[in-house]
Amino acid sequence: MNKRWFILLLVGAMVTLSHAEMKCQAGKCGGAMKGAQPKKMMKMFQSAPKEKATILQEGKAKMFCPECGMRLPMFYRTNHAAHVDGKTKQYCSIHCLVEDMKKGNEIKDVKVVDTNSLKFIDATKAFYVVGSNKKGTMTMVSKYAFSTKADAEAFAKANGGKVTDFKGALKVAEADFAKDSMMIAKKQAMMAKKGEIIYGKMCQKTDKRFATTAEAKAFIVSEQLCKGLNGKQLQAVGLYLKSRQ
């Protein structure tokens, strides 16, 4: 009896193995095997390697946008910079540049990153592609700048959008500012709530108050306030600390 059961079990195992091999030979097991592999994060079009990103502003918070706190290399292709009250400020986007303008600050010598060369160029001499299918930064309508009209037209031909100058791009950014700001405020409020939870679990406590998210993030990093935070978690905690009254 034991011998009979052993034979039956052996035959069953061989049949199961045979079916599995047939499925793999037919290419039916590949998807499942690939699904078991860790997913790779998609690289954002706006991003640039840290070593290729030029940071023009200074200070402990120089790696972060002074308006929204976003890490500048992560959104480098939409970076703008300007002289404000005697110092250089660098923004992740034209939206954040407009936000600073709306505070009544006098903005001078505006520069923008050339999408192709990754070098800063005079924004007033740049050619912008507005509304391409490449994702925008802090807006639903993307705006990418180029040093030549030929480069802008080639980009628009490949990715859609309209070629214009700095004034045209600024006009669109100002027209969309209220709508984009509402969208951003909702996302930041949600992130700040997550940041409060992360802060409670992963950070040392501080009573310090911060005027901007960038200042909060710089403090977290310099003081090693939290351990093991990734970029999104750092942004979330920074937003929470800035919003805390």
What tags apply to this protein structure?
245 residues, alpha+beta, 2 domains, four-stranded antiparallel β-sheet, three-stranded antiparallel β-sheet, 7 strands, 44% helix, elongated, disordered N terminus
Description:
The protein is of the alpha+beta class. It has 2 domains: 2-35; 50-243, no CATH class. The chain is built from 7 helices and 7 strands, in the order ααββαββββαβααα. The protein has helices spanning 2-25, 30-35, 94-101, 149-159, 166-202, 213-222, 231-243; strands spanning 80-84, 87-91, 107-113, 120-122, 127-130, 143-146, 162-164. The strands form 2 sheets. A 4-stranded antiparallel β-sheet has the order 2-1-3-4, covered by helices on one side. A 3-stranded antiparallel β-sheet has the order 6-5-7, with helices on both faces. Strand 3 (107-113) and strand 4 form a beta hairpin. Helix 3 (94-101) crosses helix 5 (166-202), helix 5 (166-202) crosses helix 7 and helix 6 crosses helix 7 (231-243). The longest helix is centred in the last third of the chain and has 37 residues, at 166-202. The radius of gyration is 25 Å and the shape is elongated.
Structural class of the helices, strands and pairings?
A: alpha+beta
Estimate the helix proportion, in percent.
40-55%
What does the oligomeric state look like here?
Answer: single chain
Strand fraction: 5-15%
Low-confidence stretches: 1-41
Strand adjacency order, main sheet: 2-1-3-4
Rounded Rg: 25 Å
Average predicted confidence as pLDDT = 88
How many E strands?
Answer: 7
Q: Specify the number of helices.
A: 7
Shape: elongated
Largest sheet: 4 strands, antiparallel
Gap from first CA to last CA: 78 Å
Order of helices and strands: HHEEHEEEEHEHHH
Q: How many independent structural domains?
A: 2
